[in-house]
Amino acid sequence: MSVEAAGKAEASRFSLTNLIRQPLLVALVLIVLLLALGEMLSPGFASPQQILRLLIVAALLGIVAAGQNLVILGGREGIDLSVGGIVSLSAIIAGNVMNGADSGILPAILACVAAGALFGTFNGIGVTLLRIPPLVMTLGMLGVLQGLLVVIRQGVPSGRAAPALSEFVTRPFLLGLPGIIWLWVLIGLLMAFLLRRTVFGYRVYAIGSNEQAAFLAGVPVRLIRISLFTLSGAFAGLAGLCLIGYAGSSFANVGELYMLPSIIAVVLGGTPLSGGKGGYTGTMAGAVLLVILQSILTTINIDESGRQMIFGATLLVLMLFYGRGRAMRA
Amino acid sequence: MSAIETGTSQRPGLAALVERFPFLPALVILLALLALNGWFQPNSLGFRAITGLISTYLALMMLSVAQTYVVYAGDVDLSVGAILSLVNCVIIVLMERWGGGGIAVLMACALGILTGLACGLLNGFVVAVLRLQAIVATFATSIFFTGIALYVLPVAGTPAPTIYWRTYGGRFFEIPFVFYVVAALAIVLVMATRARLTTQMLAVGDDAFKAFQGGLPVTAIRLKGYMLCGVFSALAALCITGDTASGDPLVGGAMTLYSVAAVVLGGTALSGGRGSVVGSVLGALIIGLISSLVFYVGTPSQWQNLVQGLAILLALMLGVMVTRRVQR
């Protein structure tokens, strides 16, 4: 008993190792450091407009990462490789439904989210009912989606974003911030509420940390897991819609840029790939961190080769701060 | 062989057979695909067509073998495509710089394999020694390797010396060169199946903690798996250089995920501990045969990718389900 108490006192005391164990804090500190570094390398990097632009890009990644985060939290090697395909598909659907007209925005939102949710549900059914490993199922689905993109793009103009949507994504909307940042904040709040304040959220953590125990406790494991994949697809669909608002029109396989980065954002946010631990607030910081890092690398004047080498090496160093695997000799 | 007729009830003999040879379901799918290819286009079973199929998919076969050695131990390597690209660029640049003679080609190939080994060593270091999560860590190293490949060869297009692709596409004693490579690969793989390292990797993949308690040097075994993976990725690069006859810093990008698919198609469990390299080779051929079948049945060109994607997804699901049912 006294040993335990001493241990607790030890843990609560200020110590650097404990601080480093807080992924959110690490990410926030790194964000500030990177902004300072960027400002040093190229003055104006940390100006309000630039930060705003970075946040818009981060919001796009962050929305995809929200779904990815849910799937990973659900455990059993949960991962969704199909998000890239869904983002691309949804961008094309959105472009064609809106075709530059504001009246098409609502149908586009519905179509994109529904399409994403549909493919997500297929993933979930494959993973739960047919018990295909998530990596395999979503990888196969990615192939199907890429094929579907080729079919849709043949002969059909890929469409344009409605002016109001572009306005929402890129222009100040409320308190000088674009609508998409407000949307992202709203998603962040909803995710926090969902995960920390609802039965559903607790069940997600339950199946993520010990599926069998959760099942024995009466948690509808399959239903929860299917809905996680459905949500992941829906978030990716929403992100595709926002993406076309940002870019104006969709281009080939644009979503591929979101597939693995969405997983990296989750990991940098402190959610281990083994699931059952972590949350979305960290992931949001992880997405911002990733985007700032990429932005610094495009700002400094080096070759594409050097940029990629530094990016890869930096990611490896960053990962050292977060959930390393358990040592065998424990 | 006679035990794998379709429609047989779950005899213990069949289960035991698949347990011992995890690639049997893949073999059945492969034979079925061969039959279908032959049905729709009799020429596709001809000597010439099979040679073409193998010289195109030999690189993926090697890459799938590479992937299998890390999957054995329960890991995964998302950088195999980037290693392939890097080695492709390295040997192309070296061969050009050294004049493209026979000795130069051999030296370049040897250095290419060493490059692959070095990449595998780095992957093994970050995953096994530093204990980073394999999926994200090897994605990070893949960005790093792509950077080096772009540094070595900034733009695609430098051609391979004539002697190189002539050899790869040529024949010796009336038998195509690629057949010798396949035969050599088969011998190496069968010998490797009996090697102690394979058993150790499978033991680690089955339960790393138990393997450690049983006295196995888990970190070293995982590291060796990644090094083997690097070497076979480099061999895959030698094949693709023979097939495309040029250097391209991004040539392997799309192949990583196909290598994972081929491993799963071959009956290897992604969670580790069970599988076979032979299955992965068959898996790579299944992917090749699916795309040629899609072509032979006369699918309109814009639908080909979709049908191929659906067929691969179906084959993946079928393979996973059959393997599990038989092994229960």
Automatic annotation (TrEMBL), chain A:
Principal location listed in the UniProt entry: membrane
Keywords: Cell membrane, Membrane, Transmembrane, Transmembrane helix
Keyword Nucleotide-binding found: no
UniProt-annotated location(s): Cell membrane
Pfam short name (any one): BPD_transp_2
Tree of life domain: Bacteria
CDD domains linked to this entry: TM_PBP1_transp_AraH_like
Stretches that traverse the bilayer: 24-45, 51-72, 79-98, 104-122, 134-153, 173-195, 226-246, 258-275, 282-302, 308-325
GO cellular component assignments: plasma membrane
Protein's UniProt name: Monosaccharide ABC transporter membrane protein, CUT2 family
UniProtKB/TrEMBL annotation, chain B:
Subcellular location(s) of the protein: Cell membrane
Its membrane topology: Multi-pass membrane protein
CC terms in the record's Gene Ontology section: plasma membrane
Cited InterPro entries: ABC_transp_permease
Pfam family of the protein (one): BPD_transp_2
Transmembrane segments: 21-40, 46-66, 78-95, 101-122, 134-153, 173-192, 225-244, 250-270, 277-297, 303-322
UniProt GO MF annotations: transmembrane transporter activity
Keywords recorded for this protein, A-Z: Cell membrane, Membrane, Transmembrane, Transmembrane helix
Protein name (Swiss-Prot/TrEMBL): Monosaccharide ABC transporter membrane protein, CUT2 family
High-level lineage: Bacteria, Pseudomonadati, Pseudomonadota, Alphaproteobacteria, Hyphomicrobiales
